[in-house]
Amino acid sequence: MNRESIALTAAVMVILAGTLAGCQAVGGGAATTPSGSASSGSTSDTGSVLPVASNPISNASTAAGLAITLAAVEDNFDPATKKPIDDRLQLTLANSTSAPLTGVEIYYEMTDMTTRQSEGYYMPLDAITIPANGETTVYFDNESGPGHFPENQFSLYRSSVNQVDFTIEASVDGLAIATATASKEAGTGEEAD
């Protein structure tokens, strides 16, 4: 067995162990199965954040108004204090319309750029409102409080030693899907910013 096979086998075992242990995710929002879809949700009955088989977002709108102005997975910082914070998926969602936006859905896919393995995650952000002509920052980090949502602590992002690239979609009914990308360099764990 070569190094890549051993690393991939170890990563799969870690993900399976976390899933079987029913690792509880805590956060400011509950991830649920989207209406009309029996198996597309990103959580198990225990609240663990699990990958989804495909992107459940269905939005064909072309109207402008929603944007992702920041997508970061390393070298993160607090937008209020500008001080560094631990690495996590961090998104700033901007609303350029004259009305507050609710019903935000997020889908993100991460790909290990060496093994080409990928995982997708879906989450409705029911607990947030993006103010009219304003923005809101959200975090996928298993922390509690407004704007914080669960993440899979055994995901490729957290377990792979390779570069992991993210593609991200944010959706609100009536507005075009906003997209962004982010990338984690090779290595694991928090590094000094």
Task: Label this structure with key terms.
disordered N terminus, 8 strands, four-stranded antiparallel sheet, four-stranded mixed sheet, 11% helix, 193 residues, alpha+beta
The total count of strands amounts to: 8
Characterize the main sheet: 4 strands, mixed
The parts where pLDDT drops under 50 for at least 5 residues are 1-46
Number of helices: 2
Compute the gyration radius: what is it? Answer: 17 Å
- Identify the quaternary structure here: single chain
Helices and strands, in N-to-C order? Answer: HEEEEEEHEE
The shape, in one word, is globular
> How confident is the prediction overall: mean pLDDT?
81
Topology, element by element:
Layout: H1 3-20, E1 66-72, E2 89-95, E3 104-112, E4 118-125, E5 134-140, E6 148-149, H2 156-159, E7 164-171, E8 178-184
Parallel strand pairs: 5-6
Antiparallel strand pairs: 1-2, 2-5, 3-4, 3-7, 7-8
